Amino acid sequence: MKKMKKIKMKGEKAQHEIAGFVLIVLVVSVVGMVFFTLSFGKGDISRQTSLEVSHLLGASMHHTSKCAMGYIPNYRDLQTLIKDCRKEKIGNPVRCLDEKSVCEVLENELKDLIDKGFNVHEDSPNKAYKLEIYYSGGDDVPKEGILNFEEGNFGNCSSVVGGDHPIPASSFESGNIETELVLCKG
Amino acid sequence: MMSKKGQLRIQEMTNLRFLNLGFSKKGQLRIQEMAFMLVAVILFFILVGLFVLSITYTGLSEEATRIAEERTLSSLVVLADSPELNCIRKNNCVDGDKFINLIGKHAYLNFWPYSSLKLVKFSGFGKDENEMLKCTVANYPDCDLIEIYDKEISNERTISTFVSFCRKDNKNDVVYDKCEIAKLIAGTKLDRGQ
């Protein structure tokens, strides 16, 4: 009788151990799932390429600016202004007919195009943007900055989309002038 | 697990002590079997969950949506580059003087695979459609929206892309190309389930 009681107690203990084991496995799996979800979900926001952004940049290159050279209506388009701005940056100042700096006109026009094109402000889906224009002579040559500016706050972006548009630097020079625009989506 | 059960059965037959313990051992075995089964099922679901998570978070579905969107947008670039609309020596550019002359041309209603086709000039950016001034041959280019046609279907999805919009202008008796950015908007009929 005593022996039977002992065996019964032993069996119950084993059952408890098995139940405990299953419970531990369950708890570990749930914790694991939560960990995986959080670790994947809170990853860095990767930049996605957007054709819409590239199209805006491409279209804006032909945009006729307010900067006339020599006479009216010899208005420069933005891609020519970018090249002129590069000349200004390397020490050959180029001025519009109204004596304004080409880089200044370029910056103002691009800001206007991007602001209105993507309707960038705090309450809209596009919260902020960053634009960078640089000359790239190849992989071994360092980038030569021409113009860069940003608007808005990149702090709370749910996603970041970007696009670029290359233009040939000149017919005598290899390399391209790259225009890159990054948009912060809220 | 099967071999263990087999070993236990052999022991049961040879070891007399098992005669007394047979019932509880069998019960334990069943509990063990159930426990291992539960663990296996849970592990299976964890693996399936991880698989689904990895597919979701590697952005496979996002990538598919992006590619589909790019294909749709590319069709608009093809439209802008078509001989009816394109500018000379410029890609992704709509010739305003050609475009304005397409208004009211009913032959184009079934020419392009779109249910509506319009263009918002730079002056119309940031305005609601009812605030925009519609273009006619009379008020062009001092207007915001050029509507070529609209079949006015209810289940329509619109796609838009930025294009250059160029026209001939005149200042100080000199004719020059005046270009601006514009938004080309085309509507497509949604099929059921889309």
Explain what this protein looks like in three dimensions.
- The complex is a heterodimer of chains A (186) and B (194).
- By secondary structure, chain A is of the alpha+beta class.
- Chain A folds into 2 domains: 1-43; 47-185, no CATH class.
- Helix content of chain A is 42%, strand content 30%.
- A 5-stranded mixed beta sheet of chain A has the order 1-6-7-4-5, with helices on one face. In chain A, strands 2-3 form a two-stranded antiparallel sheet.
- The longest helix of chain A has 40 residues, at 2-41.
- Chain A is rod-shaped, with a radius of gyration of 30 Å.
- The N and C termini of chain A lie far apart (74 Å).
- The model of chain A has no long low-confidence stretch (mean pLDDT 86).
- Chain B is of the alpha+beta class.
- Helices cover 41% and strands 24% of the residues of chain B.
- Chain B contains 4 helices and 5 strands.
- Chain B has helices at residues 2-14, 17-57, 60-80, 96-100; strands spanning 93-95, 116-120, 145-150, 156-171, 174-189.
- Chain B has a 5-stranded mixed beta sheet.
- The radius of gyration of chain B is 35 Å and the shape is rod-shaped.
- The model of chain B has no long low-confidence stretch (mean pLDDT 84).
- Chains A and B meet through helix 1, helix 2 and helix 4 of A and helix 2, helix 3, strand 4 and strand 5 of B.
